[in-house]
Design goal:
single chain, alpha/beta, Rossmann fold, 2 domains, five-stranded parallel sheet, 14% strand, globular
Length: 222
C-alpha cells in the first residue's frame, strides 16, 4: 500500500488520512499506533487527530456496532441506561452548531473533546429538554442516568435530571459513578437493557445501543 500524498488542500489531506487509517485498522494495527503513524505522516494538528480518532474504525468494528443500533421506538417498556455526559455534551454540540461527525460505525460524535472541562450552562437545560422530549414519546420502563462523579457540576446536573424525571412522569434515577463505563457494562450484563452512548468501549461490550443525539439531529433537520 502506498500512503496518500500530502496535498495543499486540507480536505484532501483529511480524506486521504482517513483512508490510510482505515486501511491500517483493517490490517489489525492497534488504533493508537495507526493513528500516530498517519497523523505524523500528514502533519495533522490536535483537532484533526481527534477527528480521526472519533470517526474512523475498522470495517469489522463498524459493522458490529451498526448491528447493535436500535430505533427510538425500541426503548418503549425497556430498561434504558444513559451515559449522561456523553449524550448531553453531544446534544449541546448540536444546539451550538459545533462540529459533529457521523463516524464509520454509524454513530455521531462531537469533536470538541470538552468532557474534562464541562460546565453546566443554560444550553444544558435546552439539551436535557430535547432528550426528555424524545425519551418521553416512547416511555421506557425505567431510565438510569450515569454521571461521572469526578466531573464538576455533576451534583447540580443530577438534581436537574431528577427534577425532569418527575416533571415528565418517568421512572428513573441518576447515579454518580467513579467509573461510568465499567458500571454501565456491568449493570447491562445483569438485565436486558438499551444503552444510550457513543463511547466505543461501552458499545463493544453491550448488545443494544440507541444513538439519541443522532435521532435528535435527524428530527431537527426535518
Amino acid at each position: 500500500m502506498r500512503l496518500g500524498e500530502i496535498t495543499f488542500n486540507s480536505q484532501d489531506k483529511i480524506k486521504n488520512a482517513k483512508l490510510d487509517l482505515r486501511y491500517l485498522l483493517n490490517q489489525n494495527y492497534r488504533k493508537k499506533v495507526a493513528l500516530n503513524f498517519v497523523a505524523n505522516h500528514y502533519l495533522l494538528n490536535k483537532n484533526c487527530r481527534n477527528y480521526l480518532a472519533r470517526s474512523v474504525f475498522s470495517d469489522s468494528v463498524s459493522q458490529s456496532r451498526k448491528s447493535k443500533l436500535v430505533n427510538l421506538e425500541d426503548i418503549k417498556d425497556s430498561i434504558l441506561f444513559l451515559d449522561g455526559y456523553n449524550v448531553i455534551i453531544t446534544v449541546e454540540s448540536i444546539l451550538n452548531n459545533d462540529k459533529i461527525v457521523l463516524a464509520d460505525d454509524g454513530i455521531i460524535r462531537d469533536t470538541q473533546a470538552v468532557f474534562g472541562k464541562y460546565k453546566f450552562r443554560e444550553i444544558t437545560i435546552s439539551a436535557l429538554t430535547l432528550i426528555f422530549d424524545f425519551i418521553s414519546i416512547h416511555r421506557p420502563k425505567n431510565i438510569e442516568f450515569y454521571l461521572d462523579k469526578q466531573v464538576s457540576f455533576s451534583g447540580k446536573l443530577a438534581h436537574e435530571i431528577e427534577t425532569m424525571l418527575k416533571n415528565y412522569d418517568l421512572n428513573g434515577r441518576t447515579i454518580l459513578s467513579n467509573n461510568v463505563d465499567y458500571h454501565l457494562v456491568q449493570e447491562c450484563s445483569k438485565s436486558i437493557c438499551i444503552i444510550g452512548t457513543s463511547d466505543g468501549v461501552i458499545v463493544d461490550n453491550v448488545e443494544k445501543i440507541v444513538d439519541i443525539p443522532h435521532l435528535i439531529l435527524k428530527k431537527l433537520k426535518n
